[in-house]
Specification:
3 domains; Rossmann fold; alpha/beta; globular; binds 5-amino-5-deoxy-1-O-phosphono-D-mannitol; eight-stranded antiparallel β-sheet; Glutamine Phosphoribosylpyrophosphate, subunit 1, domain 1
């Protein structure tokens, strides 16, 4: 959600800014803009819609000349997506230009007081208050104006700032929003995430909250709010540029679906040593026996992964687990204390609600653990402990491989905790680990069904409503299958706990209505089969996803998709694969923008 870029060097900044903005497109946006210092003046170009519009407006950046600039992709929050509300925002006399991710919570009062002082606002955005504040405080000392501005604003922000009195440096600041500095050779960059930097440099510095970076082509200096210089901590990015390219696939989503065997392998293999799960570098052991409750908090698919986590953790470690949407958790006065373990799950590590829930958990004294994909992200660095999902960069808005990696981490964590708490014996431990290690090849086997599912999608792509049902882990998987379909194909779909249908939902079933029934846990198969019969009797078309041993179901359904047998606790990792393909092919048949569905953002950095 929103993307920031910045550049200073010896070449024309605009084409580089535009190129780097394109790398951030996947985060989600509805307008884009750049500001470049040209002959001591700030020149700003903005356009509603795709970056292609901005490229057209600037002749691919060739008609804006200058070696220093900032750029932005905006996902509208305050004010509609239009040229005026797009970033960068210039101050009243064009002294400063600012790009911003996040929300300035007290912008209304600041705007009122600046208006009284004669400042004229052009846009409806919260961001413009930052630009105007900078100009209001500026007396020739940029750093001083920035510090005074930061003391005035509340909320979350990553900011890129340029001033027309300073033609060789720009400034970057962050609080609760990511901002990364890319260190090049005679040129330096900023970006919201490393995908925009990897083409230029592998050396990066993750700016920390309340730090101010001063960036010129040959140097980067970082200061705290007291004006003291702090160390620039340089890290090497260890993934290569191909990880952020489509690699011959038509969409990132398909590439990422196909990467799942590797991702599961990468997440599991280094954590199995001598037949035991090893979670290096986390403190869980120190307090595990004091934990009397676990709360998993997350949003969207990460929340669905949390559902799976609940079943597996309760079953193996025998600790009570609640799963809560992060956006609900923080406002429900949660009953947690020092004996609670709160697990925050997030691909991006930036999701505002999940971060806020995590902070609330810490404030109440709970132990905190994050399951995160993006290294050094806000959620990863805020939690007491972090277990990384080694999924690599995930570009498609609809998560697939990161979700699979999250499930895998929950399996590892559940086995680890069960072992430490003495809840499983050597034989069960060995069997679980053996099944876990076999998951990647079983996912690969499911890829053989791709064409069958594509054909199935061609039968159902015109549906207006599709239902998904399942029980326990199958229900958790149904929730994810339903979200995958609706978010990219725009077809209304709902997931229900199969036993709940007859308490209301079954009235929606009519002749020809598609119901995808997930029935992969053999111990619950008969129960779900009864629910399948209930909807079938009312005219539904049934596509069932079942364990390969359950061929009896063929006569009861319209289509069966089989998953390879595995431990019942791991079935969600397999049942989700056909549903990912189904969502993908239905969206493709409808001509949808699969990687960038309308209205959605990859990183949801606002509440
Ligand atoms: O980055 P996060 O895992 O915290 O994101 C959470 C959700 O926004 C995310 O899973 C979302 O639901 C995906 N679009 C689902 O495909």
């Amino acid at each position: 959600m929103c993307g920031i870029v910045g550049f200073v060097g010896s070449t024309n900044a605009a084409p580089i800014l535009l190129n780097n903005l394109e790398k951030l497109e996947y985060r989600g946006y509805d307008s884009a803009g750049i500001s470049v210092i040209e002959n001591g003046c700030i020149v700003t170009k903005k356009a509603k819609g795709r970056i292609a519009n901005l490229k057209k407006l600037t002749d691919d950046g060739k008609n804006v000349n200058g070696c220093l600039g900032i750029g932005h992709t905006r996902w509208a929050t305050h004010g509609e997506p239009n040229d005026i509300n797009s970033h960068p925002h210039e101050s009243m006399h064009g002294k400063f230009a600012v790009v911003h991710n996040g929300i300035i919570e007290n912008y209304v009062s600041i705007r009122e007081s600046l208006t009284k002082k004669g400042f004229k606002f052009m846009s409806e955005t919260d961001t413009e208050t930052v630009t105007q504040l900078l100009e209001s405080y500026y007396d020739g000392n940029i750093m001083d104006a920035i510090v005074k501005t930061l003391h005035m604003i509340d909320g979350s922000y990553a900011l890129g700032i340029i001033c027309n009195d300073c033609t060789d440096k720009f400034y970057a600041v962050k609080k609760d929003n990511p901002l990364i500095i890319g260190l090049g050779d005679g040129e330096n960059y900023i970006a919201s995430d490393v995908t925009a930097l990897i083409e230029h440099t592998r050396k990066v510095c993750y700016l920390e909250d309340n730090e101010i970076a001063v960036i010129s082509k040959d140097s980067v200096h970082i200061y705290n709010l007291n004006g003291e210089e702090v160390e620039v901590k340089v890290k090497e990015i260890d993934w290569n540029i191909n990880a952020a390219e489509k690699g011959g696939y038509p969409h990132f989503m398909m590439k990422e679906i196909m990467e799942q065997p590797k991702v599961i392998r990468d997440t599991v293999t280094p954590r199995i040593k001598n037949g035991e799960v090893v979670l290096d570098g986390i403190e869980l052991d120190r307090y595990l026996d004091t934990v009397n409750k676990i709360v998993i908090t997350a949003c969207g698919s990460a929340y669905h992964a949390g559902f799976v986590g609940k079943y597996v953790l309760e079953k193996l470690a025998r600790v009570p687990v609640e799963v809560d949407l992060a956006s609900e958790f923080r406002y429900r006065d949660p009953m947690i204390n020092k004996n609670s373990l709160v697990i925050a799950v997030s691909q991006s590590g930036e999701t505002a609600d999940t971060l806020a829930a995590l902070k609330e958990a810490k404030r109440r004294g709970a132990k905190t653990l994050a399951i995160v994909n993006v290294v050094s992200s806000a959620i990863a660095t805020t939690a007491d402990d972090v277990i990384y999902t080694w999924a690599g960069p995930e570009i498609a808005v609809a998560t697939t491989k990161a979700y699979s990696a999250q499930l895998t981490v929950f399996y590892l964590l559940a086995i680890y905790m069960a072992r430490r708490l003495g809840k499983i014996d050597d034989a069960r431990n060995a069997q679980l680990i053996a099944d876990l290690l076999k998951l990647p090849e079983k996912v690969e086997k499911l890829f053989e069904q791709k064409t069958v599912i594509q054909n199935m999608a061609s039968l159902y792509f015109n549906e207006k409503h599709i239902f998904f049902i399942g029980r326990n882990l199958d229900y958790a998987s149904a929730l994810e299958g339903s979200l995958k379909l609706k978010e990219i194909s725009y077809i209304h779909s709902e997931a229900y706990a199969a036993g709940e249908l007859k308490h209301g939902t079954i009235s929606l079933i009519e002749e020809g209505r598609l119901v995808v029934a997930v029935a992969c846990q053999n111990q619950l198969f008969e129960k779900t089969l009864s629910n399948i019969r209930e909807v079938k009797a009312r005219g539904a078309d049934i596509v069932a996803i079942v364990d390969e041993s359950n061929t009896v179901i063929e006569s009861e359904t319209d289509k069966v998709l089989y998953i390879p047998s595995t431990d019942p606790l791991f079935t969600a990792s397999l049942s989700v694969i056909p549903m990912q393909f189904f969502g993908y092919y239905v969206a493709a048949a409808n001509g949808c923008d699969i990687d960038k569905p309308r209205n959605l953002a990859k990183s949801v950095t606002v509440e």
